[in-house]
Amino acid sequence: MFILGQEYQSKAARLCSRTREEKKRRKNHFDLGAAVHEIESSHVPRPTDPKTSQPIRPAHEFEVCLEPDSYTEEKLFENYQRNVHKERPYEISSSGFKRFLCSGLGQKDQMVDGTSQRLGSYHQCYRLDGRLVAMGVVDLLPGCVSSVYLMYHQDVQDWYFGKLSALREISLAVEGGYKYYYMDPETYSWNLLDEDHLARLSVRKYVSMSMERRFHLPPNKVTNVKELGRSIEAGDQKLIDQLDSYQKDHRPLTDTMSSAWKANMPGLMSADKVLSVIPLGKWEVELGNKGFFHLEDLQGWTEWDINDPMTPKSDIAELAAALGPELVKQFVLSFR
Fold it and tell me: What is the pLDDT at residue 331?
């Protein structure tokens, strides 16, 4: 393992070997928290080497910490923007970073079942030997952790940081007492992680159940898809490109995409609850350089129905349903 190193692993196996019971438990039971923390510096055992009388040390120090979503020079991943998004130097700026990744929710704590729980927007920073190599942006909301964005340095692009960060954020949700973990969805429909789903994940690098149903893809390896008009191999980037192109050029695949309420998304307040406890019309909004107003001042506000997904009122109400009444009081909507 790169982080720990062969020398450390050999010494650790000798100086702090696992018990038979622990080995059996690890073999038969997957512990997400233990797995994601195992290589982090604060969890790596450092027994004393009797030959040197010094603690043994891993080859590298890997640290993960949750920080406020503030801007620092080390967080401006010029490398990521240039190599992944192909941006030119003049397009990469601290102001753009701040606007996109540092203008989230303010940080505060709330008490849940006698335990303090953080709320707000944070940066989850991954450091290797003190150097920032990846950063995830997460919103900690009442009852859920929402994954917003991830960027990483080109040097660690083969480390599967997308998967690593998702597991780390799921662990954050579990350990922090948040009920749900949200990733950026393609649709607001839920799919069971059953044998059929696992079979698809085992043969394809990219799985979108809504697209798989649309193209009638079987759970086994695909060699030909008539709808695409070409022969493809499972996991082939060409298949992904075709599916992505189809999604961009067509209307939503399911009606549930238009409303999180219709999909019964867990953690959301109901529409009736929003209307009863949140005075939406009094929510302050900034309209460019025109100043600050209340939503009820917008033309058409009173006629719009929060259950009609074709109106801005529905989107705003669903945002309020996700934030909750306390956070709504603290934030101003901005339309620029």
Answer: 86
Both tokens of residue 216? 């009638």
Amino acid letter, 181:
Y
C-alpha torsion sign, points 31, 32, 34, 38? positive
Integer CA distances (angstroms), 18 to 21, 26, 34, 105, in order: 8, 10, 14, 43
H or E stretch including 60? none
CB 68 within 8 A of CB 107: yes
Q: Which of 180, 177, 76, 181 is nearest to 123 (CA)?
A: 76
Cα distances from 246 to residues 170, 184, 201, 203, 243, in angstroms, run 30, 19, 21, 22, 5
pLDDT in tens, 288-334: 666 788 888 887 788 888 877 767 888 888 888 888 888 888 888 88
Q: What is the pLDDT of residue 240?
A: 52
- DSSP letter string over 272-331? HHHHHH--GGG-EEEEGGG-EEEGGGSTTTTT--TT-TTSHHHHHHHHHHHH-HHHHHH-
* Distance from the first to the final alpha carbon of the chain: 48
Say whether pTM exceeds 0.90.
no
| Alpha helix stretches (DSSP H) within the chain | 6-15, 20-28, 32-37, 78-83, 94-101, 161-176, 195-203, 209-214, 237-249, 271-277, 312-323, 325-330
Q: What is the pLDDT of residues 226-268, one digit of tens each?
A: 444 444 444 455 455 555 554 444 433 333 334 677 666 777 8
- Residue 157: left (phi > 0), alpha (psi -120 to 50), or beta? alpha
Please choose, from the candidates 107, 100, 105, the residue with its C-alpha nearest in 3D space to the C-alpha of residue 77: 100
Q: 237 with 245: CB under 8 angstroms?
A: no
- How many angstroms separate the CA atoms of 78 and 293, rounded? 37
Whole-Å CA distances, 65 to 42, 122, 132, 134, 283: 11, 10, 11, 11, 33
HSE-up (13 A, CA, CB side) for residue 252: 12
